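Reading a protein record of the kind used here takes only a little practice. To see the layout at work, look at the sequence and tokens printed below.
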Amino acid sequence: MMGEPRGSSDAIPLLERLGFDQYFPVGKSHGPYGTLGAVLLALFIPVLLSSMFMGKKKTKQRGVPVQVGGEPGYAVRNMRFSELIEVPWKGATTMASLFEQSCRKHSQQKFLGTRKLISKEFVTASDGRKFEKLHLGDYNWITYGETFDRACNFASGLVRLGHNVDSRAAIFSDSHAEWFIALQGCFRQNVTVVTIYASLGEDALVHSLNETQVSTLICESKQLKKLGAIQSKLTTIQNVIYFDDNETDTDSGLSGIWTVKSFTEVERLGKENPVPPSIPSKNGIAVIMYTSGSTGLPKGVMITHGNMVATAAGVITVIPKLDSNDIYMAYLPLAHIFELAAESVMLTVGCAIGYGSALTLTDTSSKIKKGTQGDVSALKPSLLTAVPAILDRVRDGVLKKVKEKGSLVKSLFNIGYKRRLAAVEGSFFGAWGLEKMFWDCIVFNKIRTVLGGNIRFMLCGGAPLSGETQRFINVCIGAPIGQGYGLTETCAGAAFTEWDDTSVGRVGPPLPCSYIKLVSWEQGGYTVSDKPMPRGEIVVGGSSVTAGYFNNDAKTKELYKVDERGMCWFYTGDIGQFHPDGCLEIIDRKKDIVKLQHGEYISLGKVEAALMSSGYVDNVMVHADPFYNYCVALVVPVHQMLEKWARDVGVKYNDFPELCNKPEAVAEVQKSLSEVARAAKLDKFEVPAKIRLLPEQWTPESGLVTAALKLKREQIKAKFKDELQKLYE
């Protein structure tokens, strides 16, 4: 999950933001003979240190077929559990009870950590733009016991403030400790929480708050002015609670319209006037989570307390040796189910959670003042979550820096990488033991310090992770990746890679809280009778499947089906196949498949995933029109790579937009796309016949990608309608 998400407006090269130059062991020149000697030594080390054990790893059965109800298909359950699990332990049937029990069990252990803001300043770039830089101190911690007390105080304060416990509260904020405390406080009074992305646009924000009839809005103080601008459109808001987040200007003019209090004031009110808790039921709605949505207005998914504890119960069976000794780096949005589920897992086992942000994650992240440690350096986490787009950037950036160091350095890196890769894949065991120590010492340990140096396990979700990137992280960061598959509609709980599964491109067997069934999709050519593996639409059933869409019965009935046994199944729209060991692989998506003029089917997502491996591509959207026999693509190029090419070949330009319009630049990028498409064995009709280079990056703030960095196709198509039309002329 590292650095900033793809599409960040920060123009600083990724590896400089990650601090790679200062960490990579061969970053300083030691002369050609010193480097050559290291390479020659490295050639002999494997021979000297390896025992040359050869062997094959045995295939481990991870999932088995199971008989279930509902539409015919091929269903699988987790091998280790004959029945679905619903709770992590007896009595933890709701998030409120789980929170209380875990806080009492781990009362003296540190829980939520926040960095102290020492100072902030603004620097002006050469082009006149101003950037905020933060000087952050060490992490300050509160214990599980203190967190419980604060949540109870906030819960009481919420009631004393006048919040109607039969109405809903919303959290509209970036992630930090008070976000989590507010959530748990609401649960203590059986208040349903509406979660909204901090980057959500004005129309979607108004829609979300009005549709759910929110009476209390909890937000950052920086959001107060935004609320002031739209207050006339908000029909049910009565109270606004803002976090004490070092913002000096909290005068938004709202106090005459709504009751406006700081988070600290509400906690103090509750501490002085305690209210008995009102514990929710298992089937009560804990969260209405508004997805960022790739099309139209966002939909609110109703997540029950039972859904949340079931996912937590399932995931803790998968992560090895997960306990209170771990430290988790939290920097993704809590309004996304991936992060909310991850932090619920950490709560369940008593982990410490340190909060940060994508813009302050590393020593050279865009908002970190020079000389100040990034979040991972200060926290030194053992657990980290990530989305594939960020891991792809880490991989591409490291390889780019290695290439820039010259052929000898590249050879040294490649030798170590291949030896460690052979060990990870199990085809050769000599690269463990002494040889592993050797390669770690001269290459990989220094790279790992970019992420704090203590990462032992990574969780990846939100989109499919490429095999190349997964292997790269395994080797260079030295940690297994638990690649998960789930949706907001399944409370993130569907499938998860087990820690000892070294295969790539798969998302593991079903979690113990879920069944996964493949249902034939004849139109797309995917059936459960396919050989060598059954294929079809992925349908998830079990205790993690949510209660449907808020105020949208039609969509709920379309995608949620209750079988004759009473189990609810969610139809994901994703296409998967089951391997013989019971592990799931995502191979397509129904909505991404377009039939071209001559009858060929093209999977837009599959093509985009292949094209992303080009060093020139920061983001890409492939477009196919059924009235044509070819596809086209909109490409956001990597600024530094395209500008470097222009300098090398002598292409003159005044600014980056002008460079993107140069025919030579378009031809160079298209050549690269053709090469990676050929390497990925794409058919000719799958390779974009024409492309358009777009200079501006796609960010969640621009509304062109979701908070999970997935493409918003309809929004992109609407914004670049003219550009797409010209590509077909």
